[in-house]
Automatic annotation (TrEMBL):
Its EC number is 1.5.5.2. Pathway: Amino-acid degradation; L-proline degradation into L-glutamate; L-glutamate from L-proline: step 1/2. GO terms for biological process: L-proline catabolic process to L-glutamate. This is proline dehydrogenase. One of its GO terms (molecular function) is nucleotide binding. The lineage of its organism: Bacteria, Bacillati, Actinomycetota, Actinomycetes, Pseudonocardiales. It catalyses: L-proline + a quinone = (S)-1-pyrroline-5-carboxylate + a quinol + H(+). Substrate binds at K98, R284, R285. Binds 1 FAD per subunit. Pfam families: Pro_dh. Its cofactor is FAD. Residues 44-295 form the Proline dehydrogenase domain. The keyword Oxidoreductase applies.
């Protein structure tokens, strides 16, 4: 119930204003977001790389309804990739892109505009020596996102995608994507989805996660295990013995565990969000975990 309300608020302009205008929100946001500008993302990347972790960087923004905003997002990624290259940080780095931030949600030509914009980012990533992963958003965008993935992979075979264990369709998608060269991030899923398309019960989502993980680990692609769940991390360690795969976690969540995994020699990639449009991302993090919400509410009520 609380999760549903927070996820509904994540898409409400009114709730957005109330949260953004509260000056006390900032301190909590800083725990999950690396900063507002390119140099902040570069600084966070430097610290993570120095501690043995890899990064995937997200320029925050989603549900863009304006072509100019979509172009601005592309420019931000191009600037970021060039800054990473200048600092010697691009090799091995990845950028995560939400297609709705580069035009997918625009009426009429949205799919085409998102494809063209994602292609520009892929070209910049190639030039810098980095990779690109397409984030997955709500289920109404899944087909369009996987189509764009297929188009991009013809020219940039290292472009990766995300599948969400809470969707009924995902086991089939896992089979389709477990092919040579295919980078696939498996997560539980962060949006408010109806029972017609998604498992509602947490234990069912977890069971489907493991089913999909088995398929990815048995396939020829490159699995990216995105979870903070200790049980899933342990199972991935067992299933992935002797093969290439990586763990992924979000910036600011379980940082000690991230360091432990990196220190033992496994690839640990941290998802680093930055930018001023942090609202939707932040609300999804609150919805995931009551402790995150409690931390937020404490900061709101104490100085
Ligand atoms: P949860 O069920 O949230 O947590 C399971 C357990 O993990 C908890 O019981 C606890 O033991 C531990 N845990 C979780 N959080 C904490 C914490 N703060 N401190 C300590 N322990 C904790 N979702 C999408 O829909 N699309 C995407 O493209 C996408 N990309 C992602 C990329 C990355 C790298 C990651 C890590 C997540 C991404 N997500 C995405 C979000 C994902 O779908 C989940 O909403 C989110 O990761 C929470 O699920 P979880 O697997 O961590 O498990």
């Amino acid at each position: 119930m609380l999760r549903t309300s927070l996820l509904a608020a994540a898409r409400s302009p009114l709730a957005r204003k109330a949260v953004e205008r509260n000056p006390l929100t900032r301190s909590v946001v800083n725990r999950f977001v690396a900063g507002a500008h390119t140099p902040d993302a570069v600084t966070a990347t430097r610290a993570l790389v120095d501690s043995g972790r890899a990064v995937t960087i997200d320029y925050l923004g989603e549900d863009t309804t304006d072509v100019a905003d979509a172009t601005h997002t592309v420019d931000a990624y191009v600037t970021l990739l060039s800054a990473l290259a200048d600092q010697g940080l691009a090799a091995g780095a990845d950028v995560s892109v939400k297609l709705s931030a580069v035009g997918q949600a625009l009426p009429g030509e949205g799919h085409k505009i998102a494809l063209e914009n994602a292609r520009l980012i892929a070209e910049a990533a190639k030039g810098a020596g980095a990779t690109l992963t397409l984030d997955m958003e709500d289920h109404t965008t899944t087909d369009s996102t996987l189509d764009i993935l297929g188009e991009l992979r013809q020219d940039f075979p290292w472009v990766g995608a995300v599948i969400q264990a809470y969707l009924h369709r995902t086991l089939g998608d896992a089979h389709d994507l477990a092919v040579a060269g295919s980078r696939v991030r498996l997560c539980k899923g962060a949006y408010n989805e109806p029972a017609s398309v998604a498992y509602q019960d947490k234990s069912e989502v977890d069971r489907n996660y493991i089913r999909c993980l088995r398929v990815l680990m048995a396939g020829d692609g490159y699995p990216m295990v995105a979870s903070h769940d200790p049980r899933i991390i342990a199972i991935a360690g067992e299933l992935g013995k002797g093969r290439d795969f990586e763990y992924q976690m979000l910036y600011g969540i379980r940082p000690q565990e991230q360091e432990i995994i990196a220190r033992r020699g496994d690839t640990m990639r941290v998802y680093v969000p930055y930018g001023v449009q942090w609202y939707g991302y932040f609300m999804r993090r609150l919805a995931e975990r009551p402790a995150n919400l409690a931390f937020f509410l404490r900061a709101m009520t104490t100085r």
